């Protein structure tokens, strides 16, 4: 397997790096999503936080506002049941409400049910591919016109080693969706390379203590794993002005020490 380029999570953006920038984050209330949102907001970004649980979104909103960071916009949306029309609506509402979009982080995912392909449950297959791959494609497509208008548009797909080496037995639809995200990123990167300043990359956070990880490995001690805040800095680097040197790359996080 080719060596993966590492992005250090020790990255600290300049104080004004995200001032006036609008970033849409899916899976915003998840382990990694919320850690990245809080860092982005602290760096001055105005966030559109999208997830399926309204209460969790409101709790994240409260934390960001209590910390005196720019007020985020809440976008409750269940990606599993979303229809074709719902994705252009997201972009339209961002255009009307905030007037711009500078970054799109895809951090929503469901684990599906790890099982051999031979026995894989068809309904779980469809749902997992819908949330993890199809929704990411549809939202990206809908947001591209806005991102093209930014002088530093960035699209970041959160990926997983299972999507890169393609050899994770029993990874099922989750692993296949991640392989699809890698392919989507590469095709899109080639298309965006000319006449646009939009960067697109994938980032594998490594093993991180989140709800998703807990679902796959319920007997693991989360305190012994890398914590979400230890990977967040790498996401900021790729979503901001210092990520302009990365385009079309499958990157991995080098966790922060603290
Ligand atoms: N944690 C790891 O070790 C690890 C390793 C490699 C890659 N990743 C990637 O990191 C990203 C973030 O995952 P995480 O580890 O932070 O897991 P997480 O805490 O479970 O976050 C995922 C988020 O996506 C949301 N989501 C799930 N289904 C959705 C739907 N139908 N509509 C809208 N939102 C939905 C979840 O909401 P609910 O909580 O309400 O279900 C949750 O807030 C994912 O792309 C994952 O593949 C994680």
TrEMBL record:
The keyword Oxidoreductase applies. One of its GO terms (molecular function) is oxidoreductase activity. Coiled coil: none annotated. Residues 21-206 form the Ketoreductase domain. The keyword Secreted does not apply. Keywords: Oxidoreductase. Belongs to the short-chain dehydrogenases/reductases (SDR) family. This is Short-chain dehydrogenase/reductase SDR. It comes from Halorhodospira halophila (strain DSM 244 / SL1).
